[in-house]
Design brief:
Helix content: 55-70%
Largest sheet: none
Distance between the termini: 40 Å
Strand content: under 5%
Shape: elongated
Structural class: mainly alpha
Mean pLDDT: 86
Length: 210
């Protein structure tokens, strides 16, 4: 199973699972439906935030602990590179497209609505995807079970739609953007960019000091 197939499969799962309405789609490429609000169980916003914050803190903590001298450490720094690139790109796109969220309108065709409309793409799904992608790419041959990490952005994508944070096309775009950022930052740099601008002591990692 190659990485491209994994991304396409996961994105398809997100689209089909999140689009629970039975009527014809609208919005971007006919992908979007206004679904019933659901902030209960595993879809609760608090769990989405817990996942997001845990991954962000975890990647930085692991990168600092391992440094750049270990395989896992370099992978974590590449995840940080991808997080920065994907996150900044998502924020720029949000401002450019200024799409209204489902909690602002029931019409998925409300684009270029100005300040305060930041639905496209999903920044959270972008970041979650960008964090896990370099890890999947690095360890997929040694440990195929690492593909299971792809379920994290899929979960976040579905959850964001259910709580009316985003339309289906928003989360699919976020998934694609984060995966692309992770792929290119993994492939293009032997030495992670963020690691090269950090103090030399970070290269060694905190684990070597204790």
């Amino acid at each position: 199973m190659n990485f491209r197939c994994a991304v396409l499969t996961a994105a398809s799962i997100a689209a089909l699972s999140a689009a629970t309405a039975s009527h014809a789609g609208s919005g971007l490429l006919g992908l979007d439906h206004y679904v019933s609000y659901d902030d209960s169980g595993i879809w609760a916003r608090k769990y989405q935030l817990a996942l997001f914050n845990t991954l962000l803190v975890g990647e930085f903590a692991a990168a600092l602990w391992e440094g750049g001298d270990t395989r896992f450490g370099r992978t974590m720094w590449k995840s940080i590179d991808a997080t920065l690139v994907g996150g900044v790109t998502a924020e720029v796109m949000k401002l450019a497209f200024s799409r209204s969220r489902p909690n602002q309108t029931t019409d998925p065709n409300q684009w270029f609505q100005g300040s305060g409309n930041e639905s496209f793409p999903s920044g959270e799904v972008t970041v979650v995807s960008s964090i896990v992608t370099p890890v999947i790419l690095e360890y997929r041959h040694d440990h195929p079970s690492v593909y299971a990490l792809g379920l994290l952005p899929v979960y976040d994508a579905i959850a964001r739609v259910k709580v009316h944070g985003h339309w289906q096309s928003d989360v699919i775009a976020g998934f694609a953007l984060g995966s692309a950022a992770g792929y290119f930052m993994f492939q293009r740099r032997q030495s992670p960019f963020t690691l090269t601008v950090m103090p030399d002591s970070i290269q060694v990692g905190w684990s070597k000091r204790f």
